[in-house]
Automatic annotation (TrEMBL):
GO MF, one example: DNA binding
Species annotation: Liquorilactobacillus uvarum DSM 19971
Ranges annotated as DNA-binding: 31-50
Lineage top rank: taxon: Bacteria
Name the record gives this protein: Transcription regulator
Length: 179
């Protein structure tokens, strides 16, 4: 396993341990010792890579979205509707962790992660700019998009994910006039 693969595996392990612990107790009641023991990683690993437990969530969400997008065919040609379709599929694939984070009040961490990931994908040419207007260049646009996407995806999951990811992707593109 390469150093990057090892790093990613440890991140996945500590995130999964955090989710498991969050299903049993409050966020503020989780100790670093308990978390690292559950994850099978050292406390040194935690302190070297994270400042807070929120950092674990943020780093994992960013890694998860980027890995998922990289696996898609024609990733450089993704329009907003298609990107959202795939994002909704990703959150559906991770419904337990998403709903656990919602129950724990961690929506803002998910939003922050989405902003970071969205900016990374744009900067690296992995997605096309969605709007021909100047609003996409506004400094608040990524925050606006992230809030809309995360809140919509969490509401969709809470309601039982009745609509398909494709439908939700088109719906968001329509809401944001990006279709």
């Amino acid at each position: 396993m390469s150093p990057q693969e090892t790093k990613n595996k440890k991140l996945i392990d500590i995130f999964q341990a955090l989710i498991k612990l969050l299903q049993a107790k409050k966020f503020e009641d989780i100790s670093i010792t308990e978390l690292t023991r559950q994850a099978g990683v050292s406390r040194t690993y935690y302190y070297k890579n994270f400042t807070t437990l929120d950092d674990i969530i943020s780093d994992f969400e960013t890694l998860n979205i980027i890995k998922y997008i990289r696996q898609l065919p024609n990733q450089s040609n993704l329009n907003f509707s298609t990107l959202m379709e795939h994002y909704f599929q990703l959150v559906l694939n991770n419904i337990d962790s998403q709903l656990t984070l919602l129950k724990s009040g961690k929506e803002q961490v998910l939003i922050k992660s989405f902003v970071t990931t969205y900016q990374y994908l744009l900067q690296n040419g992995m997605i096309i700019r969605f709007s021909k207007s100047k609003r996409a260049e506004d400094e608040y646009w990524a925050d606006f998009i992230a809030g809309a996407v995360i809140n919509s995806s969490l509401s969709w999951l809470k309601r039982g994910s009745i609509e398909t990811p494709k439908y939700m992707g088109k719906k968001l593109a329509s809401f944001l006039e990006l279709a």
